[in-house]
Write a structure and sequence with these properties.
mainly alpha, three-stranded mixed β-sheet, 17 helices, 65% helix
């Protein structure tokens, strides 16, 4: 056995020993050891807090892994095309995880914890799953996402984003579990010596929690229900702030998780910090007959990547046709690229919407042209997502197709 594999085996054994000690005596010292074991097993991600919660009279949460991401991280994923790999996280263990009625062994508990942490921090897939869902949701609802300039707005999105990442990675949110691709990835990380051990323990553990109903959200296949609720608040703070805060208070009352309650309280505080003046500014409405010049500059800087001139619709149409060419090629040869194209279209639509809202002095003709371009992008994203044979808008098909065929579109 090579040195690296032996070290991994020793670290995994250390984590199992920590679980034995927590089961025997859950205190600050054993939880600190547990946190240190996780830090060694996953050296690229830091467990900031490791918490044990005595849960007597509330619904069990068992294992709660929550990523540290902020509004800037979300903005980079949604609007800048960046990949996000979690570098910091908090983890909380529920006393019900060790309940004899659940019947989990220390090895099985270790496998469950390892699964949830690995799924959260090993690659960028949790954030990409949320981004791809959001792009499709915007198509379904015929909406665009407002570019968040205020930090409070960005952090509102961050809560929904982080909670959705937790839901799509937690084994306690699954309705079934098999020895599939996810287990194979974990096996590869652990090495040959732990492969059979982990596979056996994780399947056995899941069967126990499924039999006892510990994965109580198994019948709710919508893992983005929290994000939908956050988006409703985000899109209309003035209307939804008070009922949103009332809903948060109710969630805090019924949650057994200290970390979840903390995040819900922070979420309520972020909503409360957005006062009436911020609402006006964020909506790009003139306030005291002035427009925030910094905000307008940010919008223009974002939009400059869309095309080179605000006044030349030909440039905008060329950019649109280039993207359409990519979409046609992806539909035929590279379907895995379609989610990135849909995200790119949604970003362009957000830029158009924000530019139209923020740029004063647009003529009626200019406004009509930008609205037409916005509509064309909306049709394109719908056609891409539904695999329509023709990606061109039907009402401009002949004109755009002729321009597409006669130009050297790369």
């Amino acid at each position: 056995m090579d040195i690296e594999r032996r070290q991994m085996l020793n670290l995994y054994d250390d984590l199992t020993n920590c679980i034995y000690m927590i089961k025997k005596s859950p205190n600050n010292a054993t939880m600190e050891d547990f946190k240190n074991c996780l830090a060694k097993l996953f050296p690229d991600a830091t467990p900031v807090k490791a918490v044990y919660t005595q849960n007597i009279d509330k619904l069990g949460f068992y294992v709660f892994v929550f990523p540290h991401i902020d509004g800037d991280d979300v903005k980079k994923v949604l609007f800048d095309g960046k990949k996000l790999i979690v570098k910091k996280y908090d983890i909380e263990l529920d006393s019900k995880l060790f309940d004899p009625a659940l019947g989990l062994t220390a090895n099985e508990i270790t496998a469950l914890i390892f699964h949830d942490v690995f799924a959260m921090v090993s690659d960028a897939s949790p954030a990409m799953k949320v981004r791809n869902w959001l792009d499709n949701y915007l198509i379904e609802k015929n909406e665009v996402l407002k570019i968040p300039e205020l930090v409070h707005y960005r952090n509102i999105l961050a809560y929904g984003f982080a909670e959705s990442m937790r839901k799509v990675t937690s084994i306690f949110e699954k309705d079934h579990y098999t020895d599939g691709e996810e287990v194979r990835m974990i096996d590869e990380y652990l090495g040959d010596n732990l492969e059979q051990v982990f596979s056996k323990d994780i399947i056995s553990a899941f069967n126990k929690i499924d039999r006892m109903g510990a994965n109580y959200n198994r019948e709710n296949t919508d893992k983005f229900i929290t994000m939908k609720w956050v988006l409703r608040i985000y899109n209309n703070i003035a209307l939804n702030r008070i009922p949103g805060i009332m809903g948060i208070k109710k969630c805090i009352e019924i949650s057994a998780s200290k970390i979840e309650r903390r995040e819900l309280k922070n979420f309520a505080a972020r909503i409360s910090r957005i006062d009436d003046e911020d609402l006006l500014t964020e909506s790009a409405v003139e306030y005291n007959n002035t427009i925030d010049e910094d905000m307008l500059k940010n919008m223009r800087d974002s939009f400059i990547s869309f095309h080179n001139s605000f006044d030349d619709l030909d440039d905008a149409e060329d950019d649109y046709l280039i993207l359409m060419n990519k979409a046609e090629q992806a539909s035929a040869n590279e379907p895995d690229a379609i989610p990135d194209l849909v995200n790119e279209i949604n970003k362009k639509m957000s830029c158009i919407q924000d530019y139209v809202d923020c740029a004063g002095g647009l003529t009626k003709s200019d406004l009509t042209r930008w609205k037409t371009m916005f509509k064309n992008y909306d049709i394109l994203r719908r056609n891409i997502s539904s695999n329509k044979p023709s990606l061109f808008p039907s009402d401009r098909n002949s004109y755009l197709r002729k321009k597409y065929n006669n130009k050297d579109i790369v």
